[in-house]
Amino acid sequence: HYALWEVIEFGDSYKVPTNTDPADSSINDGRTVTVTTNDMQKKKNDVKARTTLLLSLLDKHQLRFSKYKTARELWATILKTFGGNEATKKRKKNLLKQQYGNFKAEGTETLEQTFNRLQVIVSQL
């Protein structure tokens, strides 16, 4: 969904207007707001993108990230939190390679448990 990624990457979202022309507006809860079909589609895309990003996070992180109002703000925070810089990524990759190189089955675990542990390491490489 290119439109959703555009919202995340470029912030192409509906912005509530500060000054409106009363001739082009509708009254909603005492506020005058001008809303076009294009604006509604932008808002819908932003909500979809934000929801998609939130649902991709683990449950333990959702409350912390749910305070961000737009998909672009949320994405920037996710990148800052989980992205890391190049040195961090390199260190993590080296650690995973070391874990892979030193991998061996524990005496008390089943073959399936050993395989699952190995798959976790391999999937992160």
Question: How does this model look, in words?
Answer:
This protein has 125 residues and is mostly helical. It starts with a helix and ends with a helix. The protein is built from six helices and two strands, in the order αββααααα. The protein folds into two domains: 2-83, no CATH class; 86-124, no CATH class. It has helices spanning 2-10, 37-56, 59-65, 71-83, 86-101, 111-124, and strands at 26-28, 31-33. Strands 1-2 form a two-stranded antiparallel sheet. Pfam families: Retrotran_gag_2. This is Ribonuclease H-like domain-containing protein.
Any idea what the shape is?
elongated
Percent of residues in β-strands: under 5%
How many β strands by DSSP? 2
**What is the N-to-C order of secondary-structure elements (H for helix, E for strand)?**
HEEHHHHH
Distance between the termini: 27 Å
Low-confidence stretches: none
The number of domains is 2
Biggest sheet details: 2 strands, antiparallel
Biggest β-sheet: strands ordered side by side in the sheet:
1-2
Roughly what is the average pLDDT, rounded to an integer? Answer: 80
CA radius of gyration is: 23 Å
H/I helix tally: 6
Structural class: mainly alpha
Helix amount: 55-70%
